[in-house]
């Protein structure tokens, strides 16, 4: 049925595109015709993939919705590969084909400078530093972390990623001026207010979803209009609920997987800023917003596939396709940053920053070795020693009856007397 549906959709779409090209006269503009041909090719591929791609773990609002984002992932990865194989100048100028306003170097905004919360020198508005920081990125931080919490479904992992990214901003502000912020902008506005409030609201939403009754009824079987409208709204909620229990300290495999998830999250966050820097895209450009919307949709599927693979490897023997694509996209974006501006990435860290990161890595490696190797060996040795002591105690108790005679010999003599009587 799906194959026939696909052929029908492709046939109708091809006829529609052909009809449009036949009605109008083809303009003598090579750039315009190239863009139009690429868009038409992408539309045909998306129509094919929406009906033929493999279903993911989500079925609401419809499996075709998630198949669409899987195909968008393939298109985006191919676009990144194309950008990767261009020269730096050609890659930046190629962005002009998407938006003529791109391809122009942009000044980076420095959020540091005067960090006084109350500036007595400014009598008209002493809190001007605070109002300057309250731009459109404040609600973006809140909604971003709200959606990330819905993807990760774990308070501790969200807080670790949030705090770690602030440390990364401290460490890399010598490379990107955009990372330079005041201390209260880092920890009060970002971590506590925006990120913390987003994580809190996300956890409350997860709690409501976990308590919700997942008993579905057909739309036409509901008698009232109010029930029908409620059923339509609930179509955009999960079909069933799976609570994520990452348990990173339960095994070395889960610990390495959780560390890998945190690393990919942080790298994807850094790619957002570095891609804007190397491709000369302003932060408020719609392409930046589209990339974030893209990662919100594909990230949720990828996290579910990773959790299923970790939680039940016997049933889910392979990592999901969307998880592999997200990992490939993140790696390709990082390669673009490395190729387009290696000078910025190779700027050496300040000495005290290097010391802090080396100390942190040593602490993590030490804890890993203690938790999964030294601690297990110590516990195993103590258990074996305890079992030997219990066995020796029981043996001594059996061999001695309190007056120096052997209970085993008495038992043997008793058995011999019973045999003689018989």
Give the key terms.
422 residues, mainly alpha, lipid metabolism, Phosphatidylserine synthase, membrane
Note down, in words, how this protein is organized:
- The chain has 422 residues and is an all-alpha fold.
- Among the domains are: 257 residues, no CATH class; 35 residues.
- It has 15 helices and no strands.
- The chain is globular, with a radius of gyration of 31 Å.
- The protein starts with a helix and ends with a helix.
- The mean pLDDT is 82.
The overall pLDDT, averaged over residues, is 82
- Topology order in helix (H) and strand (E) letters: HHHHHHHHHHHHHHH
The strand count comes to 0
Beta percentage is under 5%
> Span from first to last CA?
85 Å
Major sheet: none
What is the count of DSSP helices, taking H or I runs of 4+ residues?
15
Low-confidence stretches: none
**Radius of gyration, taken over Cα atoms and rounded to an integer in Å:** 31 Å
Overall shape: it is: globular
Q: Which structural class best describes the helix and strand composition?
A: mainly alpha
Helix content: over 70%
Give the helix/strand layout.
Layout: H1 2-23, H2 30-52, H3 63-84, H4 88-98, H5 128-133, H6 137-152, H7 155-172, H8 183-211, H9 225-234, H10 252-279, H11 286-311, H12 321-340, H13 342-345, H14 351-399, H15 407-421
Helix pairs in contact: 1-2, 2-3, 3-11, 3-12, 6-8, 6-11, 7-8, 7-10, 10-12, 11-12
Pathway: Phospholipid metabolism; phosphatidylserine biosynthesis; Lipid metabolism
Protein name: Phosphatidylserine synthase
GO molecular function: L-serine-phosphatidylethanolamine phosphatidyltransferase activity
């Amino acid at each position: 049925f799906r194959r026939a549906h696909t052929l029908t959709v492709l046939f109708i779409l091809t006829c529609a595109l052909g009809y449009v090209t036949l009605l109008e006269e083809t303009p003598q503009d090579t750039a315009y015709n190239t863009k139009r041909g690429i868009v038409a090719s992408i539309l045909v591929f998306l129509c094919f993939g929406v009906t033929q791609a493999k279903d993911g773990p989500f079925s609401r609002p419809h499996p075709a919705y998630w198949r669409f984002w899987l195909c968008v992932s393939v298109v985006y990865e191919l676009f990144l590969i194309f950008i990767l194989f261009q020269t730096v100048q050609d890659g930046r100028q190629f962005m002009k084909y998407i938006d003529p306003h791109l391809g122009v170097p942009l000044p980076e905004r420095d959020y540091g400078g005067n960090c006084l919360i109350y500036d007595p020198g400014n009598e008209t508005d002493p809190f001007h530093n605070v109002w300057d920081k309250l731009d459109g990125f404040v609600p973006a931080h809140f909604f971003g972390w709200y959606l990330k919490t819905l993807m990760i479904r774990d308070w501790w992992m969200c807080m670790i990623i949030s705090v770690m990214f602030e440390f990364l901003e401290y460490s890399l502000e010598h490379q990107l001026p955009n990372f330079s912020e005041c201390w209260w902008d880092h920890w009060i506005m970002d971590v506590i207010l925006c990120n913390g409030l987003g994580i809190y609201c996300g956890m409350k939403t997860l709690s409501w979803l976990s308590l919700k009754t997942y008993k579905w009824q057909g739309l036409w079987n509901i008698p009232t209009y109010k029930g029908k409208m409620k059923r339509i709204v609930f179509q955009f909620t999960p079909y069933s609920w799976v609570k994520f229990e990452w348990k990173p300290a339960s095994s070395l495999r889960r610990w390495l997987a959780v560390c890998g998830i945190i690393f990919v999250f942080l790298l994807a966050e850094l790619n957002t800023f570095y891609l804007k820097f190397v491709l000369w895209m302003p932060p408020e450009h719609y392409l930046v917003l589209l990339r974030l919307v893209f990662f919100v949709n594909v990230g949720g599927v990828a996290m579910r596939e990773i959790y299923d693979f970790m939680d039940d490897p016997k049933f889910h023997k392979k990592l999901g396709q969307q998880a592999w694509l997200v990992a490939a996209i993140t790696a390709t974006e990082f390669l673009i940053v490395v190729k387009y501006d290696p000078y910025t990435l190779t700027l050496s860290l300040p000495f005290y920053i290097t010391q802090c990161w080396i100390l942190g890595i040593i602490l993590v490696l030490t804890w890993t070795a203690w938790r999964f190797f030294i601690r297990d060996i110590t516990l195993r040795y103590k258990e074996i020693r305890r079992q030997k002591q219990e066995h020796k105690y029981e043996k001594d108790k059996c061999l001695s009856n309190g007056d120096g005679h052997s209970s085993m010999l008495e038992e043997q003599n008793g058995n011999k007397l019973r045999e003689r009587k018989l």
